[in-house]
Amino acid sequence: MDDFKFKKKYGQNFLKDDRIVEKIVTLSDIEDDSLVIEVGPGKGILTRQLSKAAKSVICYEIDMQLEEYLINLSNELSNVEVVFSDFLDMRILQKRLVIISTNIYTLLVMFHIILQHLFL
Hints:
By secondary structure, this protein is α/β, with parallel strands linked by helices. Helix content is 36%, strand content 18%. The protein contains 4 helices and 4 strands; from the N terminus they run H-E-H-E-H-E-E-H. The longest helix is centred in the last third of the chain and has 14 residues, at 105-118. The radius of gyration is 14 Å and the shape is globular.
C-alpha cells in the first residue's frame, strides 16, 4: 500500500492518527447492535475500530485499486463486509444507522440519504 496513488476525483485522504480514529468512534454514538456504513474505508484504520464497536460494518469503496487489501481486511474482521460500488447508487432503508466518512464525499452521502428518506 506504500505505492498507493491518491485520486483527486474521489477526494481520497487516509487517516493515520489513532487518536482521531478513537474520537470519531466515541462521538459516533455507535451501540453494540448498530449497523455502521463506512463510505471510503481507505486502508481500514477506522474500519478496525468500528468493527470493535458495532454489530456489523458495511464499507463502500469505489476505488478498485484497494480491492485486494480490503478483501483481506474483511476476511480478517468477521463483522465487516466490503462493497465495491459507489455509495450514491445504494438505497438505504435501515432506520437505526450510523454512517461514517472522513472525506468531502460525506456531504453528498448525507444529502443522498436525506433525500431517500424524504421521498420513500
